Amino acid sequence: METLERKQRSREQTRSGIVLTAKDIARREGWQAVSIRKIADAIDYSAPIVYEYFDSKDILLDEIRNEGFHHLRLEYERIKKVYRDPEKRLFEMSIVQWQFAMAQPEIYEVMYNLNGAYCVLPVRDSVEVEAISTIIREIIFTFIPKSQESIQKLYFEWWSLSHGMITLAMMLRERQPLEQSEQVYRDSIRRFVRGLR
Amino acid sequence: METLERKQRSREQTRSGIVLTAKDIARREGWQAVSIRKIADAIDYSAPIVYEYFDSKDILLDEIRNEGFHHLRLEYERIKKVYRDPEKRLFEMSIVQWQFAMAQPEIYEVMYNLNGAYCVLPVRDSVEVEAISTIIREIIFTFIPKSQESIQKLYFEWWSLSHGMITLAMMLRERQPLEQSEQVYRDSIRRFVRGLR
DNA sequence: AACGGCGACTTAACACTGTTAACTTGACGT
DNA sequence: ACGTCAAGTTAACAGTGTTAAGTCGCCGTT
């Protein structure tokens, strides 16, 4: 049975090798350059092997995307433990979102189907997105206990503000330095959070 | 020389036929389904003919994108003539942007490289985008004559808010009705505009 | 009237893409 | 030594962007 375990482990390794390679190509050449054959070459296999781990390219992209949302969710939960003040919590979570997008733009791109990354599977029915949604809405609720509908609106506002600034900052980064965009981001988020009470 | 004029006109017609067909396929099947051969088939030509009008698919997409920005710019200039109050102007321009994105989502997608639309050519060095930027910044300036840098920041804020809400509203439209998103959009824009004075 | 050239257009090709069926190859148990 | 089975490969299909080469008919010249 050792052999089986060894086989299992190697399966896990090649699987994560596929994911790692996909992200690596995306980071260096953009998502449009990510192809099954290129991934297979990089992990020293032929293309059909990739299909033994992911039924389609779409499912591979979906996994990477969910990995991204999962990472974000863990960060949010960490912040929730560290800080008690809801204002501080929401602010720190916003900052984490910015930092994540700047540190791993290719992941952020696949999460939102940006710049050549295209995943047909809808984002909406993902447990990770749902979990993130719940965390943020709970925080908003803790310091404005309004109706569910109002909370949803405020969540939508927060998400839009953050996502809009992140995508435009990336798009305009040649013309407007990222540090300046980040400053505006921090100010805007702070103002939004203040406005909640 | 009539023949030449006639040829010219027919050239213009096939050219716009290409653009029209590309947008039509994008609207119905998404940008990922737009291919040169499919366009050529639709206008009853073979694929290489398309290359006599557009040197590459990228340049075709760039033209459609600029067409979108141009349309938006004309709308902004129209609004500028109709209203004198800067608050009203900025609000109406925001509404136009929303309506444009909802009426022609495929154009909005190619303008921002969204959902499978991917154009390598950078958006930034487009005269249309520059013109729009100038219009909005001028309006912001007319009722807060601050430094160029502050104006740029406020412009970035406005653009982010609008773009973020539009993209997320489209993304979440199955889960959150567009009418509700539009209401939040209007409220947020109104609040932003009010906050300017 | 025959010929040359030219412009409009098509076919064929190249190197890719995602995806699947069919095949090879080598190790293991009987 | 033989059959089985899993791991992995090759080959193929239909499609992509893009370009070179070829066809075909018209028009002016000799």
Automatic annotation (TrEMBL), chains A, B:
The keyword Glycoprotein appears for this protein: no
Protein keywords: DNA-binding
SUPFAM superfamilies (UniProt xref): Homeodomain-like, Tetracyclin repressor-like, C-terminal domain
GO molecular function annotation: DNA binding
InterPro entries linked: Homeodomain-like_sf, HTH-type_Tx_Regulator, HTH_TetR, Tet_transcr_reg_TetR-rel_C_sf
Every HTH tetR-type domain range: 12-72
Protein name: TetR/AcrR family transcriptional regulator
Residues in the DNA-binding region annotation: 35-54
Source species, domain of life: Bacteria
Keyword Mitochondrion: no
